[in-house]
Amino acid sequence: MSLIVVFAIVYRHFPIVFLAEHFFFPCYIKYVTLSVRIYCFIFYNTFSSRFRKVLIFLANDFSQGKVWRNIIAQAVPLTMAQLVQLTYNMVDRIYLGHIEGIGSMALTGIGLTFPVITVITAFALCFGGGGTPIFSIARGAQEEDKARNVMGNSFFLLLSSSVILFALCMLCKRPLLFLFGASEASYIYANAYLRIYLLGTLFSMVTLGMNGYINAQGFPRVGMGTTVIGAVLNMILDPIFIFLFHMGVAGAALATVLSQAVSFLWVMRFLTGKKALLRLEVSRMKPIPSIIRRIITLGTPLFIMQATNGLVQIACTKTLHTFGGDLYVGVMTILNSVRELLSLPINGLSNGALPVLGYNYGARKYDRVRQGIRFQTLLGSGYTAAAWVFVLLAARPLVSLFTSDAEMITAAVPALHLYFFGFVFMALQFAGQISFQSLGCAKRAIFFSIFRKVIIVVPLTLLLPAMGYGVNGVFMAEPISNLIGGTACFLTMYFSLYRKLGK
Q: I need a labelling partner for 239 at 20 to 30 A (CA). Which of 52, 106, 224, 433 fits?
């Protein structure tokens, strides 16, 4: 009942809803209201006493309590934070996709920027995510001095790489966008978004890379706050810049950059403040070659997983533009958005398991590591099977959320069915990959990152359309790779790692 009261108050008094009702297109009110209600639900349940009692088992020592509870305690706040992130991302695309006359082309333009954004994210994950397993293992082994050095060196890598990437991307954005499959018409929208988005490269990389160190210290709700704060601010600024100031695609990019800046300040304030168990200190930012090599080694699987996503996106957009034109590049933008949404819980589960597995491995509690792997695999498989069924039943409503263009809806619905066929096998890929990463098995993690995307997806994306399957060949490559790559990764992890733990 209390939630109903909160929703009612928000609907009448929340400033975004007021602005949408009085200044913007009335047809968008349902999307804004839905997002605001989701935020209220998350805030209420995350910070209420009832939710804190449910997560009372949350502790900084992951070697205590039931393993599945430790994983869920980490995963739930992280998943909620990512849900907020995806909610405002999708509302952003919904706004752009429903702009009369240019919505479809705006979606296509945004889709063309994904490879650049993906590569920037890949470096952030490499230098941030590569350090957090070492950080967790050091904490578990009570080596706090080493843990502090790892965090400081991660920050140094993130800071320096963000400056380099900003300069390179700004200089090369036009040839890159045309390489990715832009036409003269779609380039206008892609360039308008990317040239502003790149201004926030430092904010986005440091926020994403260093937020993991908050979670690894046992503060997942603080880590969730990083995303929630940025998401709410973006939600407020998006409709103002896009519609009130008539900035369109550029307005969406500006809202994102400002939101990332605020999230950056939130992360830095916590990691340098008194509440952090291990603080980020300037003296620890001096590069230590041995630590940097270890961070890059363990972060390379994350980099490859993300960078190969960019490679797949390039192959997809280029091939779709050749065989289907700008329409199917826009369709791929919708498919990527739906995939982000449906991958959210399995991503949250994996991120929640990562510090727990690493900590217990460092503490030599191998039976708990095995329990964590089993739990992650079973829960992940159940969810991805349910998500697959959901796509089969609700493909048209999912596509209609992003566009009202009849031609694009007609093209996207069968593409979505094909693209998500056998989605359940992705759970095996996640379970194997995270197990390798959290336990420091860098070479095997790197191999299976390359195997699924570079060896299977990219060649099939290029070959199947040329063999007569047309645009459907692009969408068929994903389920084939899920089956082969996911199964191979999991079985290798099971026989080479899981069965040998503690022996």
A: 224
The answer to whether 363 and 410 are in contact (CB under 8 A) is: no
| Residue ranges with strand state E in 402-494 | none
- As a 3-state breakdown, the chain gives helix, strand, coil percent values, each rounded to 5, of 85, 0, 15
The pLDDT tens digits for 425-484 are 999 999 998 899 888 787 787 788 789 888 999 999 999 999 999 999 999 999 999 999
Q: How far is CA 314 from the centre of its chain?
A: 18
DSSP 126-177: HHHHTTHHHHHHHHHTT-HHHHHHHHHHHHHHHHHHHHHHHHHHHHHHHHHH
Q: What is the DSSP letter of 319?
A: H
Task: Characterise 273 by phi-psi region: left (phi > 0), alpha (psi -120 to 50), beta (else).
Answer: beta
Residue 47 burial by CB count (10 A; 0-12/13-18/19+): exposed, middle or buried? exposed
Residue 199 tokens, joined: 């201004």
- Give which of 171, 165, 193, 172 is closest to 333, Cα–Cα: 193
User: How far is 368 from 61, CA to CA, in rounded Å?
Assistant: 13
Phi, psi (rounded to 5 degrees) for 172 = -110, 10
- 179: tokens are 């390489």
Query: What distances in angstroms separate CA 358 from CA 88, 265, 276, 375, 440, one per listed residue?
Result: 32, 28, 20, 15, 8
Distances, alpha carbon 210 to alpha carbons 78, 157, 265, in Å: 14, 11, 11
Residue 178 has pLDDT above 90, yes or no: yes
Domain coordinates of the chain in residue numbers? 1-46, 55-500
Lowest mean pLDDT, pick from 19-23, 208-212, 314-318, 337-341:
19-23
Q: What is this structure's pTM?
A: 0.77
Whole-number pLDDT of residue 420: 94
Q: List the single range of 218-227, 268-277, 362-371, 390-399 with lowest mean pLDDT.
A: 218-227
